[in-house]
Amino acid sequence: MLKKRVISAIIGISLLIFLVFAGSLPFFITVSIITVLAVREYSRMLEIKSKSLLALLGLNAVLIVFNAYQISNNFNFLPYGIIFFIIIFSLYIFHLYNYEENNFIKNISYQVFAIIYIGGGLSFAVFLRDINTDPFINTTALWLVLIATWLTDSGAYFVGKKFGKKSMAPIISPNKTIAGAVGGVLITAVFIITAAYILEILNIYYVIFAFLFPGVAILGDLFESCIKRNFKVKDTGTIIPGHGGILDRFDSFIFTAPFTYYFIILFLG
């Protein structure tokens, strides 16, 4: 399992480096593909069979990502209120013509959640890549989130495997331990504080961010565990050998990306 995780990580990191530096448009396309795959995984948990509904969910999620691309590049964009209306209205029309008694609100609620959770969360990858607020220039913000998220996940995994005894959330995810969480937080905090010190930008906000970030990452991981527990599945997919599905790999990122973006805008930029 560990060998598969390492090989998959090496291939994934190599592709990611290329795609991030390929430009804003190629990266937007990449994030859109990841979004569609993630929506497909979620839809599989919902046991959605309709191809037209799958397409509708994917298109709505990509619309959010596309809007982020438009905003980041100073192009014309839609107010998010209009996007939300499009999502609700399009799903309403679909379920009006495919009406299921006693499941109407449930279906729409689950599907709106999927679009906002996945499309909204991953759209911040585009925002972070294109942000140009000193000292976060030339994709720096995106790499900060990717590396720090990976350190939190990996630190929690290896420290928990070595020292973990007491489960952090025994019902939600029995394999996640308190020791692992502490290890993930400390390793990531040291990385962020050290990086800020070397770059001579360290201040109290970076220290606060350094400890909050891994906490948010862990919450993102637990959130997806709650979803899987709800649908009684172990992994959301098998597309990434040794890691599971897209949602399994990006669960923490979906939380840390928007958190970091707004922390930069409000305090670090």
Describe the protein's architecture and organization.
This protein is an all-alpha fold and about 270 residues long. It has helices spanning about 1-20, 25-45, 50-70, 80-95, 105-130, 140-165, 180-200, 205-230, 245-269; strands at about 165-170, 175. It has a two-stranded antiparallel sheet. A hairpin with a 3-residue loop joins strand 1 (about 165-170) and strand 2.
Short description, anyone?
The protein is mostly helical and 269 residues long.
Helix-strand pattern: HHHHHHEEHHH
Count the DSSP helices. Answer: 9
Q: What is the 3D shape?
A: globular
State the share of residues found in helices, binned by percent: over 70%
Fold blueprint:
Layout: H1 2-21, H2 24-45, H3 51-72, H4 80-97, H5 104-130, H6 140-163, E1 167-169, E2 173-177, H7 178-198, H8 204-231, H9 246-268
Antiparallel strand pairs: 1-2
Helix pairs in contact: 2-3, 2-5, 3-4, 3-5, 4-5, 5-6, 5-9, 6-7, 6-8, 6-9, 7-8, 8-9
Q: Keywords for this structure?
A:
2 strands, single chain, 76% helix, 269 residues, mainly alpha, two-stranded antiparallel ribbon
